[in-house]
Design brief:
mainly alpha; transmembrane helix; 5 helices; transmembrane; membrane
Length: 136
C-alpha cells in the first residue's frame, strides 16, 4: 500500500503544481491586460507587469518543480503500470511536464489547459469513487 500511496501522491502533487502554474499564468495575463488598457504596447505592459521579477521567478520555480516531480511521477507510473488508469496517469504527467513549453497567448494554450483540467478531474474522480483517499 505504501507504493500505491506514493504513486497517488506524486500524481496529485503534479496535478496541484499544474493548477498553480495555470493560475499564475492567468494572473500574469490579467495584469498585462489591465496595464495595456491605457494605451501601452504589449511589450511595455509585460515589462511593467513583471518589473520586480517576482512573478517571472515564481513561474520559473514552478516550472522546475513540475519537471522534477513530473519525472519522478512518470517513472513511478511506468513502474506501477498495473495500477488502474495507467493512461490517465501517464497523460496527466506528460501534459503537465510539457505545460511550460506550450505557453502562449493563443487559444491552443487554453484548450491545453482545459484538457489538463479534464484529465486531472477524471483522475481525482477515480480516486474518490474507489475510496482511495481513505487509505492515504
Amino acid at each position: 500500500m505504501k507504493r500505491e500511496a506514493f504513486n497517488i501522491w506524486t500524481n496529485i502533487i503534479i496535478g496541484i503544481l499544474g493548477v498553480v502554474y495555470i493560475l499564475s499564468t492567468w494572473y500574469f495575463r490579467l495584469i498585462v491586460a489591465i496595464l495595456r488598457r491605457p494605451g501601452r504596447s504589449f511589450e511595455a505592459a509585460e515589462r511593467y507587469a513583471d518589473d520586480a521579477k517576482i512573478l517571472f521567478t515564481f513561474l520559473i520555480l514552478i516550472a522546475l518543480l513540475i519537471a522534477f516531480v513530473g519525472i519522478i511521477s512518470l517513472f513511478s507510473n511506468m513502474i506501477h503500470f498495473d495500477y488502474p488508469r495507467f493512461f490517465v496517469r501517464i497523460g496527466l504527467d506528460l501534459i503537465v511536464i510539457f505545460m511550460p513549453f506550450v505557453y502562449g497567448e493563443s487559444s491552443v494554450f487554453l484548450l491545453y489547459e482545459l484538457l489538463f483540467a479534464a484529465i486531472f478531474a477524471l483522475y481525482l474522480n477515480h480516486l474518490y469513487v474507489n475510496q482511495k483517499f481513505k487509505d492515504l
